[in-house]
C-alpha cells in the first residue's frame, strides 16, 4: 500500500503499473483511510491512473472517510472524462436524484458551493499529516516530502512546512529546506523549531557551497 501511494504521489504511472502487476492491492489505502482510486479522483491530473486502476479491478464503490465515492470526487472537479469512466461501475447514490452523468456533476457543483466544514478540513489535514509522518518514520523522505506537500495544499500550517523542511534537509536539498523554513517562520515568526530549521538550511547551503568550491581551490592532477 505504501509503495503504491508513493507511485501516486510521484505521478509515476509506469511505477504504479509495475506494482499492480507485481500484486499490489488496488483497493488498499496504505496508512491513509483512502483507496488509490479515491486519491486519484480527488486530485487533478490522474485520469490515466483512474483508467488503469479501474481496468485492474479497483472498486469504485469504496468511499473516502467522509462517505464520498470516487465518482463524486471526480464530479466535484468537473472532470467529465473520469465521471464517464466511473458511471457504469458505480452503484446509484440515493442522495443524487438525477442519476446521470450530467445529474451527478450538477449535484457535485451544488454541494461544492456550500461552505467547507472546518472540522472536516482539520480531519483531512490530520489524516494526510499522519500518512506523511508514517512515511517519515519509514525514512522514505522523498515520498514523505511529497505527502507533506499534499497536506499543505489542503491546509498550510507551520508544522507541515517545518516537517517538509526537515525532509528536504535529509535529502540534502538546502534551497528547498530554506524555502519551507522561511514559509514556516512567516506563519510562526517566534517558533523555535522554525528558527532551527532556517539555521540548519543555511548551514547545509554553506557546506554545499564549500564542497563545490574545493575543486577550484585544489585542482586535480588532470587539471594541472
TrEMBL record:
Organism: Aegilops tauschii subsp. strangulata (Goatgrass)
InterPro entries referenced in this protein's UniProt entry, alphabetically: Ankyrin_rpt, Ankyrin_rpt-contain_sf, Cul2-RING_E3_ligase_SR, TPR-like_helical_dom_sf, TPR_BSK1_C
Annotated ranges, domain Serine/threonine-protein kinase BSK1-like TPR repeats: 124-199
Pfam families for this protein: Ank_2, TPR_BSK1_C
Cleaved signal peptide residues: none
Lineage: Eukaryota, Viridiplantae, Streptophyta, Embryophyta, Tracheophyta
Protein name: Serine/threonine-protein kinase BSK1-like TPR repeats domain-containing protein
Amino acid at each position: 500500500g505504501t509503495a503504491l501511494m508513493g507511485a501516486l504521489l510521484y505521478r509515476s504511472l509506469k511505477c504504479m503499473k509495475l506494482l499492480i502487476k507485481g500484486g499490489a492491492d488496488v483497493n488498499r489505502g496504505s496508512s491513509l483511510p483512502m483507496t488509490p482510486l479515491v486519491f486519484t479522483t480527488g486530485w487533478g491530473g490522474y485520469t490515466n491512473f483512474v483508467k488503469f486502476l479501474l481496468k485492474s479491478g479497483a472498486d469504485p464503490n469504496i468511499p473516502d472517510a467522509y462517505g464520498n465515492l470516487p465518482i463524486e470526487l471526480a464530479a466535484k472537479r468537473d472532470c467529465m472524462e473520469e465521471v464517464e469512466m466511473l458511471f457504469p461501475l458505480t452503484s446509484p447514490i440515493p442522495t443524487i436524484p438525477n442519476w446521470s452523468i450530467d445529474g451527478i456533476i450538477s449535484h457535485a457543483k451544488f454541494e461544492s458551493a456550500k461552505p467547507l466544514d472546518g472540522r472536516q478540513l482539520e480531519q483531512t489535514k490530520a489524516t494526510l499529516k499522519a500518512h506523511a509522518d508514517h512515511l517519515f518514520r519509514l525514512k522514505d523522505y522523498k515520498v514523505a516530502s511529497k505527502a507533506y506537500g499534499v497536506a499543505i495544499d489542503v491546509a498550510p500550517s507551520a508544522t507541515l512546512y517545518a516537517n517538509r523542511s526537515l525532509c528536504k534537509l535529509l535529502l540534502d536539498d538546502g534551497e528547498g529546506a530554506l524555502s519551507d523554513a522561511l514559509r514556516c517562520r512567516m506563519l510562526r515568526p517566534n517558533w523555535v523549531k522554525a528558527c532551527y530549521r532556517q539555521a540548519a538550511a543555511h548551514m547545509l547551503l554553506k557546506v554545499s557551497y564549500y564542497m563545490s568550491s574545493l575543486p577550484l581551490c585544489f585542482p586535480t592532477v588532470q587539471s594541472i
